UniProtKB/TrEMBL annotation:
Pfam families from the UniProt entry: Glyco_hydro_32C (PF08244), Glyco_hydro_32N (PF00251)
SMART domains: Glyco_32
PANTHER family: BETA-FRUCTOSIDASE (PTHR43101)
GO MF annotation terms: hydrolase activity
Role description: Enables the bacterium to metabolize sucrose as a sole carbon source.
Taxonomic classification: Bacteria, Bacillati, Bacillota, Bacilli, Bacillales
E.C. no: 3.2.1.26
Protein known as: Sucrose-6-phosphate hydrolase
Keywords: Carbohydrate metabolism, Cytoplasm, Glycosidase, Hydrolase
Signal peptide region: none
Enzyme superclass (EC): hydrolase
CDD domains, per database record: GH32_ScrB-like (cd18623)
Compartments, as annotated in UniProt: Cytoplasm
InterPro entries: ConA-like_dom_sf (IPR013320), GH32_Enzymes (IPR051214), Glyco_hydro_32 (IPR001362), Glyco_hydro_32_AS (IPR018053), Glyco_hydro_32_C (IPR013189), Glyco_hydro_32_N (IPR013148), Glyco_hydro_beta-prop_sf (IPR023296), Suc6P_hydrolase (IPR006232)
């Protein structure tokens, strides 16, 4: 990967020649890894989902965007609209780094409705002459005609005393007639935490305090916080950086998880159980939630990780967003299911019913690179079941189910080129109940595995060769009676 100078990273894309942009676009378009039903950057790097909202009949989805290459440089927000969260219309960049306060990046933030208008609150990232970071929270109003009016000055100018300039990613929510913003922060002792602000007019914000939790010394920075209530439970989500792996948990470079319990907003006190990971896959970070058309809680994540090089970097682009998931809490368990509307993408249903045994079996005529696969485990006397997807003579992506331990393992050791540095090639999650169902979404270079109707999810990029289209099932010993339903997905 070529080295990018600071000047190159902080170049405005409006200043780049049309020819250079056309060249970049044509390099990107030649990539064999372009996705078909996921939001991906037209060029350059995508990271966090931003400004998610459903308002006046339209969904709005934006994301962090550095247009000029697959590095974290000068960030914009790139905007899409959608009627159903499945088909998206690109609207181009909506927030650009063009003021003193956001001169070095429009960082992550959220959307909210106030007086019937959409507002965005985001972090303005500024670097001074000594390259010192200055973070402030900025506000932008979307006018009725769709034009965006940025407020000239930050609405929260700086972190409170006792906190560093790692102060970002405001998530605004409404609670009893007032607006609140939860913001990711770091204490001067370099501990990650969340700060809470309150406002009655969206413009003037008062610092309420640090959110009290039972977590002490839990990483050095908490990014991308969120708060919402679902099925009578309060959930605070955030992405702690600097947590050590514990057995099969916290294996990625940075984590993304949640606390569930009761949040006393007036006093900023969260009573909660353990911090739990949202996703057990390799590539998942910075999720954000919002309320959908029917009041349901929907989550979209970034299918990538910071500080990691991906095989598409050389092709001038990196990353995509996850498919949207609907959240619910059932019997105390947070469940994540792909949104129903994804069924609009289904075509060409094929089904198969049969026993899998230790002789590896190719599911003919099944094959594909972009599809949804439902696997019902109707009876299982096997010690372990192996599902292989995107297989060829040289590549395979394996999902293992170990019956005794109820563990699902995703093995991408032979999937194709891997993101670097490689931190293990297997990810494991233990199911709460024996495996009955898998719902798997495969796109050109990704796999999202929903286990037991949303009990666990594993989200990962994979970069298989183009000819790797096979699907196989087998067991370690004993047999399993399985039903497969496969749909091609037309994005
Ligand atoms: C998380 C993050 C945010 C920040 C943004 C910058 O991936 O580091 O904390 O606002 O990305 O692109």
């Amino acid at each position: 990967m070529r080295e990018w100078t600071r000047e190159e990273r902080y170049q405005r894309y409006e200043d780049v020649s049309t020819e250079a942009l056309i060249d970049l676009k044509s390099t990107v378009n030649q990539s064999p890894y372009r996705q078909t039903f996921h939001i991906q950057p037209e060029t350059g790097l995508l990271n966090d989902p931003n400004g998610l909202i459903y308002a006046n009949g339209t969904y709005h989805v934006s994301h962090q965007w550095f247009p000029l290459g697959a590095v974290h440089g000068l960030k914009y927000w790139y905007h899409y609209t959608s009627e159903d969260l499945v088909h998206f219309t690109p609207q181009g960049p909506i927030l650009k780094p063009d003021t003193q306060y956001d001169s070095h990046g429009i960082y992550s933030g959220s959307a909210f409705l106030f007086d019937g208008q959409i507002y965005y609150m985001y972090t303005g990232n500024h670097r001074d002459e000594d390259w010192q970071r200055h973070a402030s929270q900025m506000l932008a109003k979307v006018e009725t005609d769709g034009t965006i009016h940025k407020f000239p000055k930050p609405v929260i100018a700086a972190p409170p005393e006792g906190y560093t300039q790692h102060f970002r990613d405001p998530k605004v929510f409404l609670h009893e007639d007032a607006l609140y913003a939860v913001i990711g922060a770091q204490t001067v002792q370099e501990e990650g935490c969340l700060l809470l602000y309150r406002s009655e007019d969206a413009i003037h914000w008062t610092f309420k305090g640090q959110v009290e939790t039972d977590l002490a010394q839990f990483g050095y920075m908490w990014e991308c916080p969120d708060y919402f209530r679902v099925d009578g439970h309060d959930i605070i989500m955030f992405c702690p950086q600097g947590i050590d792996a514990e057995g099969e948990h916290f294996k990625n470079i940075y984590q993304s998880g949640y606390l569930m319990g009761q949040f006393d907003i007036e006093n900023q006190v969260m009573q909660h159980g353990d911090f739990k990971e949202l996703d057990a896959g390799f590539d998942f970070y910075a999720p954000q939630t919002f309320e959908g058309k029917e009041g349901q809680r929907i989550l979209i994540g970034w299918m990538g990780l910071p500080d990691t090089q991906y095989p598409t970097d050389e092709e001038g682009w990196a990353h995509c967003l996850t498919i949207p998931r609907e959240l619910s809490v059932e019997n105390g368990i947070l469940k994540q299911r792909p949104i129903q509307a994804l069924q609009h993408l289904r075509t060409n249903e094929e089904t198969a019913l049969g026993y899998a045994n230790k002789f590896q079996r190719q599911l003919h005529p099944y094959e594909g690179k972009q599809y949804e696969m439902l696997i019902d485990v109707l009876d299982n006397e096997a010690t372990a079941i192996y599902f292989e997807l995107r297989t060829s003579k040289t590549a395979t992506t394996v999902i293992e189910y170990h019956t005794r331990t109820q563990e699902i393992v995703l093995d991408r050791s032979e999937s194709g080129p891997l993101p670097q540095p490689v931190d293990g090639t297997r990810r494991t999650t233990r199911l709460i109940t024996p495996l009955t169902q898998l719902q798997i979404f495969v796109d050109t270079s990704s796999i999202e595995i929903f286990c037991n109707d949303g009990e666990r999810v594993l989200t990962s990029r994979i970069f298989p060769p183009e000819g790797a289209t096979g699907i196989k099932a087998s067991t370690e010993s004993g047999q399993a009676y399985l039903k497969f339903t496969k749909y091609e997905l037309k994005g």
